Amino acid sequence: MKLADAKEKYIQTWGTLASNWGINRTMAMVHALLLSSDKPLSTDEVMEELLISRGNANMTLRDLIDWGIVRKEIIKGERKEYFVAEKDIWYLFKQIVKERRKREIEPVIASIEELSHIDEKGPEAESFAKLMSDMKNVTSKINNIMDLAIKSDEHWLVGKITNLIK
Q1: Residues 11, 18: contact at Cβ < 8 Å?
Q2: Which residues are registered as beta bridge partners of 83?
């Protein structure tokens, strides 16, 4: 397989997989393009390669910077902005976990905490309180696992997961 074909397939596959995980397809494709590029890319190059609009490219690049997985890079003598993806895959994994936790798990925990305070008594209220308690227990455990992944180094976490699988 030619390198250009392999990169194109990688970008398309990453976009499809990410959309299955609830991440914007274009965001994943732009990230994959930058990740697979050996040089910084301008907004124009991203637009041309992925056939997306300037607005979409700008918004997506800004989101990737907000996630902490892409950064702007200055090229001496150039007026355009260029972008580079973080290439350390372990760092990338931890940043994505950190963002997903902030956007998905923490709001659920806050909502469950709020819903746990019921003024009424009776079987239906007790059933609902138990449901909220069980949900809080599970989401807290998920939050703790995500926290461990964010704070750990690669070898420790991989070792722990390997031990769980054995």
Answers
A1: no
A2: 41, 72
DSSP state of 102: I
Distance CA 102, CA 108 (A): 10
Integer Cα distance of 28 and 35 in angstroms: 10
**φ and ψ at 122, to 5 degrees?**
120, 170
Question: Which pLDDT tens digit goes with each residue over 98-129?
Answer: 888 888 889 999 999 898 888 888 899 889 98
Provide the mean pLDDT of the chain: 88
Q: pTM (2 decimals)? A: 0.75
CA distances from 6 to 2, 10, 11, 58, 72 (A): 6, 6, 9, 25, 26
Return the bridge partners of 20, or none.
none
- Residues 19-32: tens digit of each pLDDT: 777 788 999 999 99
